[in-house]
Every structure is written in structure tokens, then in C-alpha cells.
Amino acid sequence: MAPTPEEIVRECYDDPALVERVAHRTTPSKMEIVEPDPAWPQTFAALKALIVDALGPTAVVVEHTGSTSVPGLPAKDIIDIDLTVPDPTDEAAYVARLEAAGFHFLLREPAWHQHRFFCRYEPTANLHVFGPDATEPVRHRIFRDWLRSHPEDKELYAETKREAMRASSQSGEDMMQYTDRKDAVVRGILQKAFRSLGYID
Predict the structure, then answer these.
(1) pLDDT lower than 50: segments of the chain
(2) CB-based contacts of 2: which residues, under 8 Å, 6+ apart?
(3) Cα–Cα distance between 80 and 25 in angstroms, integer?
(4) What pLDDT digit, counting tens, does each position of 79-97 carry?
(5) Which of 64, 96, 101, 137 could be a cystine partner for 44, CB 3.0 to 4.6 Å?
(6) CB 75 within 8 A of CB 36
(7) What pLDDT sits at residue 11?
(8) Coil, strand or helix: which one is 98?
(9) Which residue windows are coiled coil (predicted)?
């Protein structure tokens, strides 16, 4: 069942203590913001085709999210993909097939939307697997679509990303701490989007 507006606006944080680590990256993710690459949509399209070919109807929805999905937005050179499957807990239905297609299974988060996370090294991508009732991919799409149509917030987010990356790099922080530095701005932009959709007053 698709999530309701009330569920979508409710914040649900992942708890690092509850993460079940499956494997570690063989190549570290780069802490670097680069200028927009017009090839990012084509890279996503190629990766989507790989996923759909590997999973068939198990790939219910495959969406390009994250900063590389917003034209003109600086980003880490990593394609973020949200994959919806009928049941994320049924790993036999998709894990081996995704790994055969070049995606590396890194972790599961049963307490956070039954999220499963994969990475890919060439081209570089993050693949997030959710079920149909998960709110997080809906929030990702709302955020993406808002930035695509509101250049002033896209510029605000771009500057926030640059400053967060500068501060995190200088402090020797990891990707999670970089994400935390952007959190207040992300929440503020989402509130605007939710209000526009009539999800909140």
C-alpha cells in the first residue's frame, strides 16, 4: 500500500546501531563535489536498463534521485537510484541478480523501511532498495522535483553542499557527517514542498 501524506511528512531516522553490515566497499567513496555532468541522466538510464534486465517485474519502480538527478546541480559523481521491489525482505528474489549485474550488497536496515543498500564502482552508483510502503523514496522524489522547479532553492542547496563538503573535508569527517551538515536545509526545503502539495499547513 502506498504511504499516505501523513506518513510521508513524518520523519523517520535510521539508527546506525541497527545496521546489519554485509560487506565493505572495495573502493572508498570520494568526498568531492563536482560540477554538473550532462551525461548523468544517460548514465542512470543505462543503469536502470541493467536493473530491469536483471530483475524483470521484481523491479517495480526504478527512479533517479539525489543531486545527479537535478539538472545543473553540483554533486558527488555518484548516481543515486531508488529501487522499489515487492518485498525487500525476500532477498532471494533480487540480491544475487543485482550482484550478477555488478552491484555490491553492502548492508541492510530492517528497522528503517527494510532498506537494503548496494553500491557500484563503474559507473559509480548507490542503489537503495525499498518496499512499496516505504516513505523515504517518496520524500526523495518530492525533494528532487522541488529542486528541479525552484532554482532559488536549488542554488541554496548547491551552496549548502559545497560548504558542508569543505567543512567535512577540513575536519576529516565521513559521508554520514557530511550528510548531517546539510540536514537542516534539506528539512527546510522539504517543508516548503510538503506545504505546496497540501500535506502540511
Answers:
(1) none
(2) 132, 133
(3) 16
(4) 999 999 999 999 999 999 9
(5) 64
(6) yes
(7) 87
(8) helix
(9) none
